[in-house]
Write a structure and sequence with these properties.
By secondary structure, the chain is mainly alpha-helical. It has a domain of about 240 residues. The strands form 2 sheets. Strands 1-2 form a two-stranded antiparallel ribbon. Strands 3-4 form a two-stranded antiparallel ribbon. Helix 12 runs antiparallel to helix 13.
Length: about 350
């Protein structure tokens, strides 16, 4: 049943903007798509390796700043009288550099922190996110600090026979986010189905047994952290070039909480889980905003989350999988003849 969720989502969201005239809703879909990409990247760590990162927003913010500064340019002085100047370049180059540099940060954090597990790893990731936020806040010469980086160029893509095209409209940015989301999903699906993916799940289920079979835990987890960080960096780049203004608030802890909620409510360790959780908790505030006060919105938001986790502890997607298996089992049992029927039919009159 659940194997049809991702293709169904792709068809629905590919056609949805064609009949959507409200720019506010289209904007909400774009932001939700960006956060869903972040949730998919976090799920690669939390869901498939069992490692909880509460500093994942650091990679999102680093990707946003790297891409923005690559496009805008900068002129900063460094120790020992050094000075680095960049005149500004292509936003597409910034997108690529955001992926590369955040992947490198993920690799370094993985190499340093995956020698510890559990609460120690969580503390390392939170500390890393806070350090990066303080750097963005205080290195005013580079990041403008609380004044924010403004007038960030729109993403520019080369189109054959046309040239470079700036993605200025919401519709164009929507399909760009959708394309990056699909690519991220396919990459994760391919990775999880590979031998490396089996090693990740083995470490999550029984680390001692996995180590006894020769799986290198540090290397496996580090590669997962690198890919996860690179995806979050790509999402940060998309965010920067769509919003066109970023400040240190991009490192807020609430973004990490939102990613964790999307993963856990949808079903960690499943491919479709972050998609379902991302759509529900990305668009839920938009649905509640016109009908109730902000205080009531958060109460309803929390109540829905508690209800989902109480009724479906493993998440929405695993619950749907279990329901599909029970329905299939009942149908199979209903089609199977009872033991008494063949004996009766074969008996002599």
């Amino acid at each position: 049943m659940t194997r049809f969720i991702a293709p169904l989502f792709l068809v629905v969201f590919a056609l949805l903007p064609l009949g959507l005239t409200d720019p506010y809703l289209l904007n909400a879909l774009i932001i939700t798509g960006i956060l869903t990409i972040c949730a998919m990247s976090l799920n690669l760590l939390l869901g498939f390796t069992g490692q909880l990162s509460l500093g994942h927003v650091a990679f999102f913010g680093i990707g946003a700043y790297v891409s923005a500064l690559t496009a805008l340019g900068f002129d900063v002085s460094l120790p020992f009288g050094l000075r680095v100047t960049h005149e500004g370049g292509s936003p597409l180059l910034g997108f690529v550099l955001a992926i590369v540099l955040t992947g490198l940060c993920g690799y370094l954090i993985g190499r340093l922190s995956f020698r510890v597990r559990g609460a120690y790893f969580v503390i390392v990731t939170i500390s890393f996110a806070e350090v990066v936020r303080l750097v963005a806040l205080n290195w005013v010469e580079l990041t403008q600090g609380p004044l924010a980086l403004t007038a960030i160029p729109n993403m520019v893509l080369p189109v054959p026979s046309i040239g470079d095209v700036a993605l200025r409209s919401k519709m164009q940015n929507y399909y760009l986010v959708l394309a990056v989301g699909v690519a991220s999903y396919l990459l994760i699906a391919r990775l999880v189905a590979s031998r490396f993916g089996r090693a990740m799940r083995g470490l999550k289920e029984n680390e001692s047994l996995a180590l006894s079979l020769g799986i290198n835990a540090t290397r496996t987890l580090t590669v997962a952290a690198t890919v996860s960080a690179a995806m979050a960096g790509a999402a940060g780049s998309l965010y920067a070039h769509y919003i066109r203004i970023i400040d240190p608030d991009v490192f807020l802890f609430s973004y990490t909480v939102t990613m964790v909620i999307m993963v856990v409510s949808g079903g960690k360790g499943t491919l479709a889980g972050p998609l379902v959780g991302g759509i529900i908790f990305g668009l839920l505030p938009v649905a509640l905003r016109p009908v109730m006060a902000p205080e009531a919105q958060w109460i309803v938001y929390g109540a829905i989350l508690i209800a989902i986790l109480f009724l479906m502890p493993r998440g929405i997607v695993p619950a749907l999988e279990g329901l599909g298996e029970r329905i299939a089992a009942r149908r199979k049992a209903g089609d199977k003849p009872t033991d008494a029927m063949p004996a009766k039919m074969g008996a002599n009159p």
